[in-house]
Design a protein that fits this description.
Blueprint (H helix, E strand, L loop, with lengths): L14 H7 L6 H16 L8 H17 L4 H23 L5 H28 L5 H28 L13 H12 L12 H26 L6 H4 L10
Helix pairs in contact: 2-3, 2-6, 3-4, 3-5, 5-6, 6-7, 6-8
């Protein structure tokens, strides 16, 4: 007598993920839009002094990343509290036209820390989900762009802490040139028109170039590997033995 149990065929690869995201726009579109705005504001800076509005926008970007990546509620609350305090501080700085080297260093360091947290949160979120879809691609692009912004702020902080020019006497130190150098280094394009002058900046540039390559072969691969379902989900159930 054959068993009444029927073997259930596994669903098509990625179909379970498609059902989860259908009809729901990905929040990574908003993350990318905020990143573009942050890049534009920073690229408009003709000096190394960070802009308070750009700083607030960067913190908003990180807060949105934490929301999209479904970070712990307590972490999100702390992020919004910090954002509110930073927003108030930025308004005070703008209204009273406050300036100071210590203020510039504080803004640069805070932005750098924020852009270090964001890509880690994105990668952690994408590793936990499965399926190769538009959200996974947008997440990979967002994380890659955040890494480039992070290193640009590292160069900015070094420029604020040191007296010697970051890229030599022929290049004006500015957040704009630091962004350009960061992304050409991250992608290992290396046009050669901007060259790091000090050993410290050279070491950071080498670390960024290595990070860019490792990101492509590890972080992106970890995000995309979700397209493969675990063996225990795809393995067919054992057939029932016939009994007399």
């Amino acid at each position: 007598m054959e068993s009444g149990d029927t073997m259930r065929e596994p669903s098509p690869l990625g179909s379970h993920v498609a059902r989860q995201v259908v009809g729901r726009p990905s929040g990574y579109w908003l993350v990318l839009a905020l990143l573009v705005l942050s890049y534009v504001l920073c690229a408009a800076q003709g000096t190394t002094d960070p802009s308070p509005p750009a700083f607030v926008l960067q913190l908003v970007t990180v807060a949105v990343v934490l929301r999209v990546t479904e970070a712990h509620t307590r972490v999100q609350r702390i992020a919004w509290i910090v954002l509110a305090a930073a927003g108030i501080a930025a308004v005070v700085v703008s209204v009273f036209d406050l300036e100071g080297h210590a203020l510039d260093i504080s803004l640069s360091a805070a932005s750098m820390l924020a852009f270090l947290i964001a890509p880690v949160a994105i990668i952690r979120h994408q590793v936990r989900r499965r399926g190769l879809d538009a959200e996974a691609l947008l997440a990979a692009i967002s994380a890659y762009a955040l890494v480039g912004m992070f290193f640009a702020l590292v160069y900015n902080l070094v420029a604020l802490l040191t007296v010697a020019p970051t890229f030599g006497p022929t290049v004006v130190d500015s957040l704009s040139s630091q962004l350009f150098f960061s992304f050409t280094t991250l992608t290992t394009t290396g046009y050669g028109n901007i060259v790091p002058a000090s050993p410290t900046v050279q070491g950071i540039a080498v670390a960024e170039a290595i990070t860019g390559q490792l990101f492509l072969i590890t972080a992106v691969a970890r995000i995309m590997r979700g397209n493969r379902r675990p063996a225990y989900e795809t393995a067919p159930a054992p057939a029932s033995e016939e009994t007399s």
